[in-house]
Amino acid sequence: MKHGRRPIRTFLTTLLHDFGWIHRGIGLIGNLTFLLGSILFLPSFSSLQTAGVWLFIGGSALMFVGALGEFLISLPGIRQWEENRAD
Fold first, then answer.
1. What is the dihedral angle through the alpha carbons of 36, 37, 43, 47, rounded to the nearest 10 degrees?
2. Could you tell me the pTM of the whole model?
């Protein structure tokens, strides 16, 4: 069973390492969405509070995905794979 999972693990590891800009970009979009949602909570935008809630939730989710990608890259197994790949 382990042998069948190796291509998936290699794919995910390559995706996380070589395309790190993807999860960083997702996190950046999440930060911006979170900020916009927060602004819509101000009293002058009270009619848009529902939209603010959804932007706040969506931004939080995107920030989580970005942080998760950064965390996965920092795992020791990823760093070891990176070193072995460089050899």
1. 110
2. 0.68
Lookup: tokens for 6: 């190796």
84 CA to centre of own chain: 25
Whether the CB-CB separation of 53 and 37 falls below 8 Å is answered with yes
How many Cβ atoms are within 10 Å of 50's Cβ, its own excluded?
9
Residue pair 78/49 in contact by the 8 Å Cβ criterion: no
pLDDT in tens, 10-32: 777 777 677 778 888 999 999 99
Separation of alpha carbons 67 and 84, rounded Å: 25
